[in-house]
Amino acid sequence: GGTLLAWKGPGAEDELTASRAAQNELGLEFTNRHDYVLPTGESRSILVFVQNAPCSATYPRAVGVPSKKPL
Questions:
Q1: How many whole angstroms from its chain centre is CA 22?
Q2: Is the pTM of this model over 0.85?
Q3: Using omega within 30 degrees of 0 as the cis cutoff, is the peptide bond preceding 60 cis?
Q4: How far apart are CA 64 and CA 51, in angstroms?
Q5: Are 7 and 29 in contact (CB under 8 A)?
Q6: CA angle, 14 then 17 then 18, to 5°
Q7: Cβ partners under 8 Å of residue 53, min gap 6
């Protein structure tokens, strides 16, 4: 297991929704979201994921494969 902290910009909610298949593929469970505002006024989020299942043996993938076959 482990924990993944993903620093995201204003589109965090859309990215979270779009990443459902990847979360399942990698055995990740979304657990929390921390929203905050930078001194410049821009919004940011930290998305917290916990690995609750083993990753398949196909990961990590070789260089170049993620761009050719994204999750």
A1: 8
A2: no
A3: yes
A4: 24
A5: no
A6: 85
A7: 27
How many CB atoms are located within 10 Å of the residue 28 CB? 20
* Beta bridge pairs of residue 49: 4, 30
The pLDDT, as a whole number, for residue 58 is 84
Residues with Cβ < 8 Å from 66, sequence gap 6 or more?
none
Copy the structure tokens of residue 54: 């083993």
What does the pLDDT look like over 6-61, one tens digit per residue? 999 999 999 999 999 989 989 999 999 999 999 999 999 999 999 999 887 888 88
What average pLDDT does range 61-67 have in this prediction? 88
| Residue 30, both tokens | 């979304």
Distance of CA 7 to the CA centre of its chain: 9
- Token readout for 14 is 């859309």
